[in-house]
Amino acid sequence: MTTMYARLLKKPAGSILLFGPRGTGKSTWIRQNFNDAARYDLLDTREVLRFERAPYILYSELKTLPKGSWVILDEVQKVPALMDEVHRCMESLGLKFVLCGSSARKLKRGGVNFLAGRAVLNRMHTLTSAEIGADFDVERALIYGTLPMAVTGVDPEGFLSTYVSVYLNEEIRAEALTRNVGAFSRFLEVAARQNGQVTNISNIARDASVGRTTVQNYFDILVDTLIGYWVPAWKLKRSTKQISHPKFYLFDPGVARAMTGRLPYPPTQEEFGPLFENLIFNEITAYLDYNDLRYQPFFWRNYDGTEVDFLCETASGFIALEIKAGREWKRQFNRGLERVRREMSPAPMRTYGVFRGPRKTEFEGITVFPVEEFLHLLWTGRIIL
Question: Which residues make Cβ contacts (< 8 Å) with residue 246, sequence separation at least 6?
């Protein structure tokens, strides 16, 4: 019997669009919070065919429900035309919806009705350190990630290998997102090896033996199917010598390792850095989403190599964060934090470091936390973003 962890995503008062990669626990969360709701599962091909032929059936079947009743549409992207009917049910019948999906591509490309603000967009993340609690193990999370089945299952390697295969087959082939699955598979491996680094489209195109335009389209597929996201570079207005290319992060370190074929092997020292950075960024973005904070995470990097891994403008000023996978914090690690603080003065800024070492360290204006302490302070609201 596997452990069930309580999720931090709050039950909404009104309709929501709930998106997240496959396997993050959306369906489980829905069952726990909306057990009595009317539900339509669009993974069922029969339901898809039925609604594709006549989307208006949805309204006909729901019009007898009491006002304020909840309705679940799982994998709503399978039938984009239903969004107009959902809108009609909200307006005419006063129903509330949970519209759940693992891909926004068909919805975005079809120019469908996104309900004009009548449903709040939420994102389901992999399990966070706060949700796992005392069972959270940083080293294990770096190797296998924190998808629920990778955390609670008996064979995380087998699960993750199958996950990547299912993603290719179900999300890519089924939705006909690309005809050349072989080229996309090569791209996935190369892109996963670049996880968390400044993205050079031309270099990735060369290494994957596909065209530059095709690589850009492939990245769009990853974003639309929620497998990864861009982190843009922060641009100081007065500066002309900063890196402007974004970084790209996959949504889970374990999935990143599965895409590179590295699951059977211990992570190398070269791997640990990007994996650790990926894990911390995922925790931060989950914290922002689950606390309804709409701040955009950035990174900052100068052409001379000076960089800061995370930079975010908040209501109380800027936060700058440097992330290092080592167990010893060296003074030169502070260079980026000190530099960006000078560059952005007199703007208020808090500067932090995170590492895998055992003890908190204080420098002039910089606090360096062991990762476990940093995550605890983040999720308890004592590091305010």
Answer: 198, 199, 230, 231, 232, 233
pLDDT tens-digit readout, 323-360: 999 999 999 999 999 999 998 888 899 999 999 999 99
pLDDT in tens, 83-133: 899 999 999 999 999 999 887 776 666 545 556 667 788 999 999 999 999
Specify whether the CB–CB gap between 379 and 129 falls below 8 A.
yes
With vertex at residue 349, the alpha carbon angle to CA 384 and CA 197, rounded to the nearest 5 degrees, is: 85
d(CA 344, CA 281): 22
Asked if residue 2 has pLDDT above 60, the reply is no
Q: Where are the domains of the chain?
A: 16-123, 129-229+255-267
CATH 3.40.50.150 fits 16-123, yes or no: no
Token reading at 320? 């700058």
Question: Alpha helix locations (H) across the chain?
Answer: 26-33, 45-53, 57-62, 82-88, 105-109, 129-132, 138-144, 148-152, 156-166, 181-193, 201-208, 212-224, 253-260, 269-290, 335-344, 371-379
Residue 186 near residue 210, CB atoms below 8 Å: yes
Residue matched to tokens 């010598």: 241
Rounded to an integer, what distance in angstroms lies between the CA atom of residue 219 and that of residue 188? 9
The verdict on whether omega for the bond into residue 346 sits within 30 degrees of 0, i.e. cis, is: yes
- Amino acid of residue 135: D
Sequence-distant (6+) residues with CB within 8 A of 142 are: 253, 267, 272, 275, 276, 279
pTM (2 d.p.): 0.91
Pick the closest to residue 296 from 368, 351, 246, 371 (CA basis). 246
Position 175 pLDDT exceeds 60: no
Does residue 242 surpass a pLDDT of 70?
no
d(CA 216, CA 238): 29
Per-residue DSSP letters for 235-299? --TT-SSB--SPEEEES-HHHHHHHHT-TTSPPPHHHHHHHHHHHHHHHHHHHHHHTT--PPPEE
